[in-house]
Amino acid sequence: MKIAIDGMGGDNAPKSNVEGVVSAIKEYNIDIIITGDKDVLEREFANYEFDRSKLEIVHTTEIIENEDKPVKAIRSKKDSSMVVALRLVKEGKADAVVSAGNTGALLAGGLFVVGRIKGIDRPCLCPAIPNVKRGMTIIADGGANADCKPRNLVEFAAMTNIYSKKVLGIENPRISLANVGAEEGKGNDLMKKSYEELKNMDINFIGNLEARDVINAKTDVIVCDGFTGNILLKSAEGVAMSVMGLLKETFLSSTKGKIGAMLLKDDLRKLKSFMDYAEYGGAPLLGVNGGVIKAHGSSNSKAIKNAINQGIKFAKGNVLEEIEDFVQSFKEDNEE
Amino acid sequence: MKIAIDGMGGDNAPKSNVEGVVSAIKEYNIDIIITGDKDVLEREFANYEFDRSKLEIVHTTEIIENEDKPVKAIRSKKDSSMVVALRLVKEGKADAVVSAGNTGALLAGGLFVVGRIKGIDRPCLCPAIPNVKRGMTIIADGGANADCKPRNLVEFAAMTNIYSKKVLGIENPRISLANVGAEEGKGNDLMKKSYEELKNMDINFIGNLEARDVINAKTDVIVCDGFTGNILLKSAEGVAMSVMGLLKETFLSSTKGKIGAMLLKDDLRKLKSFMDYAEYGGAPLLGVNGGVIKAHGSSNSKAIKNAINQGIKFAKGNVLEEIEDFVQSFKEDNEE
């Protein structure tokens, strides 16, 4: 098992990436190939003691920045840490790849460097948001495809069903459709047509779900177009962060508040950890011909380590083969 | 000035509706026509002392329930408190109408009983969500139209611009487009095309806004199709409610937590009031030929009173005439 990692991608790269790699090697005893400036990476790794035989550094000379235009960056920065890491998966030199870099570039790289699984129309990005049961809920698509057809949502549902079983270990994942009401027949044209398709699929489709119930752990996966997924996710993120900010402000505005907050320190930390993305690793890009895990841009070492673990499970779970099987059976069903 | 109110609509009707009416008569010295079962309403009003000459009760025999199919209910329950209240506005007997009843039915009633303003393609429902600056942000459309064309978003922007000035007293309302990124050219097909239209309008268009920034008071109005608006709003509501729930659970889980929570009681109440819909009145239905205010289904008397105040400002601000002026100038611009 060998995982590739983009050493220079992410707000805290290369420090967090290197630290995450060291933790992953120690914890999972796997082989890692990291891409990036060799001198810089060597200096970082020198701070840690670990089994160096598990690590390979592939020197790259370019970095894709957050401000770079995704498609242009992938095409022009051929020796960037991200493109080279993606190529390692494409060429079978690594079993999966993790990057915390430019999301748009990673999506473009997934398409142009790694390539789609034959028969899949559109790959989807599947971030997870924490729910009140201390679990997580997958949004598919979380932002890769702004405009979708019902066929795309069918693919998203099938692929996340496989991913949830094989990587997250959920036996019979509940899959729902993002909508404005629970009843059949609700929503926009896309959702009405997609409902008809999803209810006939061989998955545990639990119907429409309102956005307010995503955090209430009523589903394991919520399926939608990438525009809707982004709105749902970012709206939730914005409120969670603002409420935590207001809470802090409220507590610090009086002496009584400060004493109260001190007493509650541990409890508040628990609450904060519920909203901590680092706990949950990264978002898989499903539908491309290799394991590609997008770690959060602000990933710390723990988030990187967890994303590497996702990559390991992705490869071990034969997710790609399962998706290919779905494509085959889907094709046969539609030829009947 | 005369405001009509659906006396039987809402989870707390008729009690909260009656109490809200009494407060509004006292505070704003206006005339109210309330629709509903006369005996039931009389019994409720008997609990309060106020100037009865300001109140008229119009007896109705039917109630539209939350479970009723909207269009069917409006067409078949002609003597319902909601339909009769809407008809009062249509016939010019009231200057605006407030209802806390079935949202879908009120939308249908707005279209079929009150009717559209000539030249407006689609009316929009404009709920507001609280923001961190203790103000509010309008979502337009918040759920009336699941599928929209760019033309609809142009109308939503123009109408909320007028409403924000005339009813909310915002001098130069910031109007943004809900999107997945701030840069021009982002988003789905609808948003790309709508951006082109909005940037050429005579409004303070501040460009695309990500869903996470709605709560941060970066805009006064966010324009989108009703499907997206519903997802944005409900996702925010769900997280706000869940975080408050988790907070409570966390505080009550230990003695230290309980003491801390007691010390923080006043501060926590302040935080809760930030998320209190009652403070903010109702959502106007813009584009129909009369002032129609949808109060929250769970409105208490304060929310009803505030929604009545919105109706007063709507009528005083000549919002309808201003929308008609926009339609006229828009028509002329497109004929040039």
UniProtKB/TrEMBL annotation, chains A, B:
One of its GO terms (molecular function) is acyltransferase activity. Its EC number is 2.3.1.274. It is an enzyme of class 2 (transferase). InterPro entries: FA_synthesis, Phospholipid_synth_PlsX-like. It comes from the Bacteria. Homodimer. Probably interacts with PlsY. Catalyzes the reversible formation of acyl-phosphate (acyl-PO(4)) from acyl-[acyl-carrier-protein] (acyl-ACP). This enzyme utilizes acyl-ACP as fatty acyl donor, but not acyl-CoA. This is Phosphate acyltransferase. It comes from Romboutsia faecis. The lineage of its organism: Bacteria, Bacillati, Bacillota, Clostridia, Peptostreptococcales.
